[in-house]
Predict the structure of Serine hydroxymethyltransferase.
Amino acid sequence: LVDLKDHDPELFDLIEQEKSRQWRSLELIASENFTSKAVIDCLGSALTNKYAEGLPHARYYGGNEVVDQVEELCQKRALEAYGLDPEKWGVNVQPYSGSPANFAVYTALLRPHDRIMGLDLPSGGHLTHGFYTYSKKEGTRKAVSATSVYFESLPYRVDPETGLVDYKQLDRDAGLFKPALIIAGGSAYPRDWDYAKFREIADANGALLMMDMAHISGLVATGEQASPFDVCDVVTTTTHKSLRGPRAGMIFFRKDERGFEGRINQAVFPALQGGPHEHQIAGVATQLLEVMTPEFKIYSQQVKKNAAALAAKLTSLGYTIASGGTENHLVLWDLKPQKITGSKFEKACDAVCITLNKNCVPGDRSAVTPGGVRIGAPALTTRKMVESDFEQVATFLHEVLVVALKLQEKSGPKLKDFVALLDGNAELKSIRERVN
Ligand code: PLP
């Protein structure tokens, strides 16, 4: 019963440092958020001690009478939060995170080397949706995630002009490639998804349709983005982004004669995972309770308003926002017109305690040298910031960019030389003092 502070002061101090970094900086990473004390209490609870392989009331270990209730509560709240009829939809709440959730779906519903189509990584897709790198010199293709190792992937893209999913290309390529599964959803797409179009293309080619709503699951639960549940066969999500829960994953599946329930449950355990993390599952359960409150609906609306205010302010300053704006929680800022890479701008922002990430923008050919940055509103909205605060954030970003462009003139193209000039720069120091 010794506190961490006394048991391991070195580690305690590191955690305190990270806490302070999170609170001092402007947290703009679109996939991050601040969980509640209730969620943290679950993560640090006695539930972490328990082995519970299997499903509620069908476990491989004794002593699960309480844990069964925790997991069932989480399942019940997950279905309720998305307005799903338990006769028609089921959910597995055991995936350790988003990537294992996606791979469990593929394991359950596909055979090795089946064909899949997901949004390309440089277009804003996620690695687990199937992605390769190509070497022109060697004429080779390399699978980057296990998805492209075990399945054949032909990604679809966004239109480089509009920044919107190129449904025509998806339609044409799906007709030729005949995928077994089409995956909607992504990590850096600022617009809503045309599920009816995806369904039409999937049906025309005999494909299953999955939505990975990881980024927008909080917005979907509150009706601030379209629901994928009307037409998709399977929906996966993480729970730690706009949903604001602990790090974990969930898989929703239709309950029908196709038998997804048994196949998906079996893929999660025993195929891919061992004992479920019931402390995480409890954290998801308590977060889902919050998600169903009117306050969380207001929060989700504010997330969208804040992202829109940031996009509008950057546009008014003359900058290029991919797709011309945003309909959700994130903004993709195309820095190519300013002739600076996303990597350099990310480093310059780090120097003033603004945390965001380099990101591909429409028209980028490679994920290695991204031409812009991704900026998200969920975390700072949790800290009660509103539109005027986000306009101020946009002004800070503009100031940082002006300094970064001057430093780039001195440093030349290499990132290492650019970074060397950041430390001790008086203009950045002055911005940092105002940010803090
Ligand atoms: N799916 C999408 C769309 C994501 O953006 C992410 C993570 O960023 C994942 C899946 C993977 O989630 P995790 O990092 O929890 O494995």
About this structure: The first strand starts at residue 26 and ends at 27.
